[in-house]
Amino acid sequence: MTLRARLALAAGAAVAIAVVAASLASYVGMRHDLRAQVDRALTNRSGGFDRYPGMGHGPFRVPQPPFGGAGGYVQFVRQDGASALQEGGDTPLPISKRTLEVAKGTRTALFEDMNVKGTHLRVYVVPIRAGFAAQIARPLTEVDRTLRRSALLLALIGGAGVALAALFGWIVSRAALAPVARLTTMVEEIAATRDLSRRVGATSRDELGRLASRFDEMLGALDSAVSAQRQLVADASHELRTPLTSLRTNVEVLLTRGDRLSEGDKARLLHDVVVQIEELTRLIGDLVDLARDAEPASTEPGVQLDDLVARAVERAQSFAPGLRFETALESQVLDGVPERLDRAIANLLDNAAKWSPADGTVEVRLAAGELSVRDHGPGIDPDDLPHVFDRFYRARAARSMPGSGLGLSIVRQVVEAHGGTVTAENAEGGGARFRVRLLTRA
Length: 442
Known about the structure:
It is a single chain. The protein has helices spanning 3-45, 97-104, 141-176, 178-193, 207-257, 263-290, 305-319, 338-355, 407-417, and strands at residues 73-78, 83-85, 110-116, 119-129, 132-139, 300-304, 324-329, 333-336, 361-367, 370-374, 421-426, 432-437. The chain starts with a helix and ends in a 5-residue tail after the last strand. It is built from nine helices and twelve strands. It is an alpha+beta fold.
């Protein structure tokens, strides 16, 4: 069953319950009022019967009420079960055990329903004097007929109300679910065409409008992710082409002309091959790190950031023994992925070491949730400053140096994945400074 049909059915069911409840309440209230009128008339008719003679004096005459009102059918009952009808009466009323109890004085006046020769009667039993009770009866024919007509009318109205409710429920559900139908059609078309540039377009501010807006945002995020993935593949293909071509050329020279090369030339070619393989390995590793769309779910609480920085500085010092690393590290704790944070810190230190003079100094500071790494090299050209964190971007001065142009991109990805920011600037007195701001506990 479709959602539209379920909504229409639910609306019809809700109205049906309400209509049935209202109809039952109306019927019960009408029945109570009509029978109450009969009961009041019988009660008013019962006055003065204690003046009538006792049993055995023959039929008695009951005065009719004024203006032709309904007088009722009267029968006297003695406590031993004998009865006497009013003058003109020919059908005795049934005498129940409760009626005898009223005649004996052990029960107060009461009302009874009974059927006599197919006629539905309402009977009021009232004590009139010691040992006697009077039964005053009135037919309920008109009351029953009115109730039957009312029940039929209420049933017809209720049925029409339920049918109209189902119809209006179908119409309303169709209008209410129109945005869902458009969203479904859009999803099916996007799944068929893989066109993530399309948008639903929210037309309201209700729940469905917010759903459409969130869906458009999701499509935008997917479109950006797919575009970034395609750009990464295109950039990676371009960057891999040069070292692969050079590596293939050197290997072909070794294979085809290796026997004619001197030992020195062979050694240089083999050294170039090893360097190119190392460059490819580093480039592929950077691509793998950069291709991660999100940080791993295994975030560790209480990572000691100052310890990570200290260990990264020790490794950088071993790779660049001619440089001096000055550190000032305060205790900083955060929740994160240690391996990824370590890679980002190492990339910053490698970048600083690459641009520092042979006997230069790299200043590393960690305080108040900010990691600062400064070198004393030539600094960053103002034209290059907006692009230093772009993938595969290499400044003109860096094109003769080893590297893939992905190190700082990895830094930005890791920092942003941890809810932080990274910026680059030219420091006073020369050199470049990189600032990493992270959400730390202390």
